[in-house]
Specification:
alpha/beta; seven-stranded mixed sheet; six-stranded parallel sheet; 11 helices; 26% strand; ER; ADH-like_C; Zinc-binding alcohol dehydrogenase family protein
């Protein structure tokens, strides 16, 4: 089978398709024949050796795989060969066949678009946990950064489903701002402009919730936009590096809250709630309340091009590979 790996850190060109044996599922795992592989931003950082958690060499990207169960490892129950599932695969995800732990596999309803269903493996769950962490109340004003990305455009929609009133979306180009409006944003602002906080304040005043995957100075400036009892939820550092900005006590004296959200921690600490949320997400997707924008669906051999699209910051929604 084919599998895409990299032997050195660098640009997209270091991604190389290799030949490998079909893996054998270990106890508690399943073997999946991949149909769709979702490509995530964090893998471009890992490939460059710049991720918060380094990826050792040789590297093998992770990804969100939709496919057909081919074989079961020892101890796996509740699944059968032929089932279509979504799975977060943490190693050798860009491949014709992958193995994944059975515990968090997502069985997919018949008829669900496999390209859209790829978000169920992790991006939609991430967006759900971020929105849940924010504790959005009916009518609140919510600002979503990087709202044209895979997680961002899902977070816009889930914030609305959670009861948000006005939704402000930030992105870095006119095309992305148009895309964010298409997926439910009321107001859009180019956060690459230094004046974005003032523009947000002029549009809506203070905001109740900020969902922030950008980090760095964007996080720090966002705190100043929060209303009393406002919440900023940080869940990434796409533009600001791995370090949180320094937040002084005075920044928070106006009853402002800054917290983080991690899907891994939610699964560890609140697994029943995450499973209930996953059932909600499947229902939303199945009934059209949650939509997934597919920016590009490329052959597996064009993994480098998929990474280039993401690094060029032209991505609108989801980029996937097709084995």
């Amino acid at each position: 089978m084919r599998v895409v790996r990299y032997r050195e850190y660098g640009g997209p060109e270091v991604l190389v398709a290799e030949r490998s044996e079909v893996p054998v599922p270990a106890p508690g795992e399943v073997l999946i024949r991949a149909e769709v592989i979702g490509v995530n931003f964090i893998e471009t950082q890992r490939r460059r050796g710049q991720a918060p958690i380094p990826s050792p060499l040789p590297g093998a990207p992770a990804g969100d795989v939709v496919g057909i169960v081919e074989a079961l490892g020892d101890g796996v129950s509740g699944l059968a060969a032929g089932d279509r599932v979504a799975a977060a695969v943490f190693h050798d995800a860009y491949a014709d066949f992958v193995t994944a732990e059975a515990g968090w596999l997502v069985p997919l309803p018949a008829g669900l678009d496999p390209l859209a269903a790829s978000v169920l493996a992790s991006p939609a769950q991430t967006a759900w946990t971020v929105v849940r962490t924010a504790r959005i109340e009916a009518g609140e004003t919510v600002l979503v950064h990087a709202a044209a990305g895979t997680i961002g455009h899902l977070a816009v929609q889930l914030a609305r489903l959670a009861g948000a009133g006005t939704i402000v979306a930030t992105a870095s180009s006119p095309a992305k701002l148009d895309f964010a409006r298409e997926y439910g944003a009321d107001i859009t602002i180019d956060y690459s402009r230094a004046t974005w906080p003032a523009e947000a304040r002029d549009s809506v005043g203070e905001v109740d919730v900020i969902l922030d995957s950008v980090g760095g100075e964007t996080t720090h400036r966002g705190i100043g936009l929060l209303a009393p009892f406002g919440r900023l939820v940080s869940f990434g550092s796409a533009g600001g590096g791995p370090e949180m900005p320094v937040v002084s006590t005075m920044d928070l004296m106006g009853m402002k809250y800054v917290t983080g959200s991690s899907l891994a921690e939610w699964r560890l600490r609140r697994p029943d709630q995450v499973r209930a949320g996953l059932a909600e997400l499947i229902d939303h997707l199945d009934h059209g309340r949650l939509r997934v924008g597919i920016h590009a669906a490329l052959p597996l051999a064009e993994a480098a091009r998929a990474h280039q699209i993401i690094e060029d910051r032209t991505q609108l929604g989801r980029v996937v590979l097709l084995p």
